[in-house]
Amino acid sequence: MKTTLKLEEAAKFIFSYYLTVQLGFSWWVFWAWLLAPDIGLIGYLVNTKVGAALYNLCHHQGLAVGIWMAGLYVGDPNLQFAGILLFGHSSMDRIIGYGLKYEDNFKHTHLGWIQQPNK
After folding, report:
1. Using CA atoms, how far apart are residues 100 and 22, in angstroms rounded to an integer?
2. Is residue 96 part of a domain?
């Protein structure tokens, strides 16, 4: 099942790149901004509760789709791109095992424990 989920996330990631190019952005723009949603990690400088909340906000696929749809509604390709980028970035993170965070520990995600396969 893990392989199926990773393949699904990989398809979402590739589709995000495709949508970026279809919006008219240069091929490199997606790659240049790909790590921008990790700004949410700054919350961990406060504590794990704030860190998890901010990280999850910046990696929530539902929010990403909402931002993309808002961009469609107002006709703003930059807002559409922001939603696509958030969606693609969160898919990339989930491929490598970084899911939405629990408040107790950075390594405790909705996909399980990072680098602790037996938990």
Report:
1. 28
2. yes
